[in-house]
User: Fold this.
Amino acid sequence: MTEPEYHVYALRYAMRDAKRAEHFIGGDPHDAPMPMDYFVWAAVNDDRAVIIDTGFTAEVAAKRKRNYLRCPIESLKLIGVDPDKVEDVVISHLHYDHVGSFHKFSKAKFHLQEPEMHYATGRYMKYPKLRHSFEVEDVVGMVRMNFAERVVFHNGDAEVAPGITVHACGGHSMGLQCVRVNTARGRVVLASDVTHFYENMEAGRPFTTAFHIGEMLEGFDKLRALAPSPKHIVPGHDPEVMRRYPALPGQEGIVVELHREPTK
Assistant:
């Protein structure tokens, strides 16, 4: 049976200014700017829309001094997706910028690696360095979703829908997962924070927020194994994504089409 194909979109909802040294363990000798973009992703065909990550809210943006451009969930309407009709949302991990607007989906089930829930509610959260990337209300909210029977837990690789699979990677967070989607150009791997930037993976230089550095390095290898080519891997925060992929007509600077070939 032929796998269904999807159109895959990256929607940019926020950004922040940063320097190179902030993005590599051990720093960087060049004191140069290296901005960071924030995205949510969507895999869409005639049968369904599966959303990958939910971004953060305007309130959290103000608290963390991020440049909030637009509501990531309301932005789904730009690609013809009604959030109230979405049935499946993949949460790559529970860091604030990937789960913060989950409450804007009225009926979706949330796909999460079970170790991530253990991590975010367990003993390691007593350490400020590790809990810094979590918002307690997001974590408690996802616990409430579990009590409401709206969390689907996975332990390792799994199918979310025909043509869409999740793959546990770890490293950056204990229960991090990436998503692979079948498209007309082959299987596209949405790395999320398995690699923040192209350069983290290409240079083998882990990102500064890490639970397990060895697993982060192994995550780079897993991305390569999952993808038909390096051009099928989409990093989680790199502004270069907006330059490499064609924009959805009329949504330049906001939405790019990952199911189309990158320009480089």
Notes: The chain has one domain: 7-257. Helices lie at 58-64, 96-99, 114-121, 128-131, 136-147, 198-203, 213-226, 240-244. DSSP finds eight helices and 13 strands in the chain.
